[in-house]
Amino acid sequence: MGMPARETMWTAEMARALPDDGKRYEVLDGDLFVTPAPSGDHQFALKLLYDRLNPYVTEHRIGVLLWSPADIEFSPYRLVQPDLFVAPLIDGKRPRQWRDMQSLVLAIEALSPTTAYADRHRKRHIYLEEAVDEYWIVDNDARLIERWRKGDARPEMLAESLEWRPGADVPALVLDVAGYFTEVLDEG
Questions:
Q1: What does pTM read for this prediction?
Q2: Is position 6 within any domain?
Q3: Which residues of the chain have pLDDT under 50?
């Protein structure tokens, strides 16, 4: 289970110095958060979501859609590794270094037993306080996507479809959430 370990006030620099051992290291407000490699089902859900989002993100030049491992450092005490995320372009070009990604258009976490609490509480708090426009939590068990936006007191719980419009001048992407989970869960 992913658990915060608080023997000291962890920094992003300290986490990056840890060995590359297949685990994910994040710093959530000074707490070290360690999770094991994700399951195959978790990764397949993210692959399918990537396949649906990437053509839209690319065509409309919204940014670049990437996946973890990634070191998104909002402050010395906030280093996150979103499962999927859209980083905005910088002067019309993709950011080339993690340190260039100081904001995100979209952050996505797929729930797993080891990350559910952190994704829904700790990381949500961080994403909504930092320069992240939207945060989605993919819940395979409930077959829904929780969508959070800045200022939301509660998420939108989307089980049928999700309409994403990252800019006023960009046409909306409509994601068939029910169809997505049918494919994720191999029920088609």
A1: 0.89
A2: no
A3: 1
